[in-house]
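We store amino acids, tokens; thus:
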Amino acid sequence: MATKGSDRDLQHDIIKAALACAADKGWMNCSLADIAGRADIKESELRIIFPEKADILRAFGRMVDKQIAENLDGSFDDDLSPRDKLFDIMMERFDILNDDRDGLCAILDSVKCDPKQAIIGLPHLGTSMSNMLDIANIDSSGFFGAAKVFGLVVVYLDTLRTWKTDDSPDMGKTMVVLDKGLERAEALVSAFENKQMPQFDFIKRNN
């Protein structure tokens, strides 16, 4: 019987096999059978863990979130601003994504041709960005928290477009776009938080 540790190793192998398959032949052309072959397991075994290709992508997102949390655990200075923390967290994310850039770029290209993938993936992307806010110790609860999550999703997707073609050794282009995006998002959220809601008197009183 497989242990929990070996189960995690198998999931990791499947995810890496899927990304390699996407890099070689495009995500749309990768079947579960193709991925199972690359992972050196039976397709029936793969389907027990990941019934659909979308499940592999969701697991990859969780794996990245976990790795970021582990890599940055206790590494922030107390005087670092929330925005600076978030910048470091998101750049750590892009550093991790660099390991599978070709496969991820192929997957991102496929999303443009298959809106269904984007619709299915959006809730999970929102969860992932909420996790990034939590790592930065930024409150993501309530209405304003939802606005922060949505803003970070927009910033992330916009920065991804630059990251895909960023050939600079230090990801300088990606950093510039991310920094500007976070600056705009911070200003927008601040405006929402500081805005005084209009007061309405729905009860007309007779003098």
User: Anything to note?
Assistant: Confidence is low (pLDDT under 50) at residues 1-5, 196-207. The radius of gyration is 21 Å. Residues 142-165 form the longest helix (24 residues).
